Fold this sequence. Notes:
Number of strands: 5
Helix content: 25-40%
Strand content: 35-45%
Largest sheet: 5 strands, mixed
Order of helices and strands: EEEHEHEH
Number of helices: 3
Radius of gyration: 13 Å
Shape: globular
Structural class: alpha/beta
Mean pLDDT: 84
Distance between the termini: 22 Å
Amino acid sequence: MRIALLLRQKKQEETDPVLNQAIVFNVKEDKVNGVENETVAGDMSSLFYWALTEKVNTIYIPVVDSWTKALFRVMGITLKGYDEAVDDKFFQTFIL
Length: 96
């Protein structure tokens, strides 16, 4: 399983898109056995394509609406907003 945690958004210049810093965890048998650091374009279509290409199963993202969650879920990707991940053990391990 691959889980991504989007940490922040930053803008390089006025012409550059918003970029997300993503930490991708490779999890096997409830243990993290690999970590990758990536930069992903901030729009949802780029995030969607990136997640499919990188075979990410779950993405924790600062804010997500129900329509976007449903779209990602159809393709087998779970999106979780930070506010709804309060009781999520994996999320809390890395945020606290």
